[in-house]
Amino acid sequence: MSIRKKAWRNLMLASINEGLEQNIFGLDSGSGPTANAPSYEFSIAGLPVIAHAFDIGFDEIRINAIVSLYDQRTDLVLAGNITSFWFGDAVATGWLERRTGKWLQTSSPLFRCRREVSQLLANVTVKPNGYLAEGKFFL
Question: What is the residue range of 96's domain?
Fold first, then answer.
């Protein structure tokens, strides 16, 4: 697996684990997040992360995560199009499947990351907490 893919996966797994830990959402259908779910903060590899999870239907959750947010406006993480370095040192989006199984969908990840941060994120060990680290992508 490439450094880039490992970095994205570790950031997504950490974001999912933290959302579960903070009770923002659960792994079962209908267990959040609510329409007004808050953004949540944590750190990975010593770097600050702000994430937001929201229901996208079909029991899937979309998660946006920004590492080292440049602007302290936390509403930026709510943006559906967090695709540039204008937001932070890394921006990522992923989807958590919960209907046909429980896994991080790993096809076509959205990820922009500075090289030095990518290496830091790739070197962290993050284990999924009650779900699989990868699975089929549904469109």
Answer: 3-135
